[in-house]
Write a structure and sequence with these properties.
Length: about 775
Amino acid sequence: MSDANSRSNEQQRVDYVTREIEMKEEKLYSKSSGVKESVMDLRRNFWEDVTVNLDEPDDVIETQASIKQQSELLSERERTHGKISGELKTLSRLKDSPYFGRIDFTESPGNIKEQIYIGIASLMDHDEEDFLVYDWRAPISSLYYDYPPGDAAYETIDGTISGEISLKRQFIIRRGLIQGMFDTGVTIGDQLLQQTLGNNASTTMKSIVATIQQEQNKIIRNERSKLLIVQGAAGSGKTSAALQRIAYLMYRYRGELNPDNVVLFSPNPLFSSYVSNVLPELGEENVRQLTFQDYLQNRIEKNMTIESPFEQMEYVLTQADADGNAVRMKNINYKSSADFKHLIDQFVVHLESKGIQFKNITLQKQIIISSDEIRDYFYALDSTIAIPNKMELVLKWLLKELRKRQKSEKDKDWILERAELLDKEDYLKAYQENQEIDVDDPALEEEMLRSEVAKRIFAPIKKRIKRMEFVNVPATYRQLFVEWTPDIATQDWNEICDQTAENLLNRFLPWEDATPYLYFRNSILGADSSRSVRYLFIDEAQDFSEFQFAYLHDVFPYTRMTLLGDVNQAIFANTADGNPLIPGKVEEHHERITLTKSYRSTRQIVEFTSCFAPGKEKIEPFNREGFLPQLIRLNKKTELDQTLMENLRKLQDSGNETIAIICKTMEESHGVYTLLNDKIPVKQITEETYAFEKGILILPVYLAKGIEFDAVIIPDASIQSYSREEDRTLLYTACTRAMHHLIMISRAEPSEFILNTPRDKYEEKIM
Ligand SMILES: Nc1ncnc2c1ncn2[C@@H]1O[C@H](COP(=O)(O)OP(=O)(O)OP(=O)(O)O)[C@@H](O)[C@H]1O
């Protein structure tokens, strides 16, 4: 069969599949319009179809039942409608591009050859008998990603199926037309990859489903490991693989796993929005995505302020010589370690006999149960009971005491004076709840009123007790640094204590204290062990400290974790020690996958940045040609803004749409913004930026994590900015954000990280 013929055959098949899709669409449309009409009808006539009668208590009950029935019917129809809309969306995606791959597979021994077409979702023919397209996540589709033509095998629930692949083909199909078609070996899509990676950076990440690489497929389909650790070079597709893995798991465990069971910790809000399109593009709902800071904030008292990791970073970078910084660095160091976790454990043991601080329970500013009473009750409980269990007992006791108090307060005069607390609806509710009361009997009516008012007054107090607010956690945690003396203290313990005690007095938790504080809180109040989370993904895991990992293991004991990161990009203070990304740091059962090939940047950029990458691991560039990175040395007369403007214009003229000026700190970023703001449209990215648009962006390196741009300019690549070992990872992270162009500017002597790179890896210009 000639190539041309084969292509026309393939196009005929695409046409056939397109027709099948159209037929399915038609069927679904008619079904959908029926359901839609029914939904609209139900909504329009909702109140006509329910019987509303509030005259007698019986009628009220009947009315409620009728409303309930009607709304259940409505939500059932709405669900069906939602499902049909989802199916229609998938069909529309398939119509545009029904598949991207084909393998011809002969199951051994001697079976007939099957043609397997692979796309973003499955599609059956009109008789619902044969697969016209297999979902990329189906077991058989793994052949496509894992093997070149020749012997191959895949796993099913019934065991391994072996055979031979006689053809492996890729397609680029757009609007139902084959635009490209290549037969290929194991590396899927050199041509295809060249095309996609050569395009402009996108403001939202794209799925890589058509060109997943063998190594990445191991991450995506891994089902065995409780802990999967992925160390991957910058741009090696860790984030992409993580998102494809989520989509895979949602397919594999369809019906058992819902988006709420999966949590993704992302490095910053901008990143969250950057990746938010990938799962919907693959036809899946987005999972819960949050930063670790949000996670902590949601669990800590609202009146405590948590410093963000970026504020900590900015402090470390800009105030290195300020008073108190040395103590702060020791503080950060110690509180990032597992040693501090053990120290907290020791303190908690000490609290078993004394020291927990409680709060008074007050009513109308009067103490009704004092903190001393609560403390005495707590410490009188059997000493073998664990602290969190004792807290539960205190809670029950307090609620019982409160009920007694509520009963006695009810008959006091002031209660009736507060009857105005109740509005009309409350009256109605109170009557419904007390239907046996004869409303014509004034004594009974007053009694009911008193009960209702008392209930209302005590409700907020009960709520606070149920939230364990009777324990003064910040004050108790402060005791660790003020009252208590550990058996063995770390060096500089006294200074660490002074600094921490003062912060706690101001209800301020520096980033290094945030996780320890929550750990301590859980130790005395009980952890909200998050059983509903079945899969936890941590991207940029190199930025988590040993303490934070230990904490996460404690609160997610039943959760399967996927950690993805790059030790070369560890930019936060003291995160490298004890980080599981470094081999040898984790003892428990885990699986480790290393990705060494970098897809984001051109070969020239990868070769240049690998020369000063902090780690020694091999980093292989994907073979995409580009320009050498440029080092521009400014002479005395040239202004920085002039050089920036000139280069920005050049970059824009040559089609670069997202250009990032990546600074070391926010402080530097403010300076560059002030310099350019009135000369050219620029946008400054801060911690609060939730989405980014095309254009020229100015940002500190720690906010550029995980994101990529067409071109990157480093406005100050001098030795003053990047000289210490810690600066190496910052410069490496900044430079590896570039897909096509990298420009570094330096007025003074350039950083040695650049100068020590072989001269043929970059070009130098004097301006
Ligand atoms: N198999 C692939 N097919 C197509 N594109 C890919 C593939 N793998 C990675 N890429 C592309 O390479 C770029 C980098 O991927 P990604 O952001 O997932 O890497 P990363 O390892 O998380 O990077 P970093 O650690 O530097 O943030 C993205 O543009 C992604 O689309």
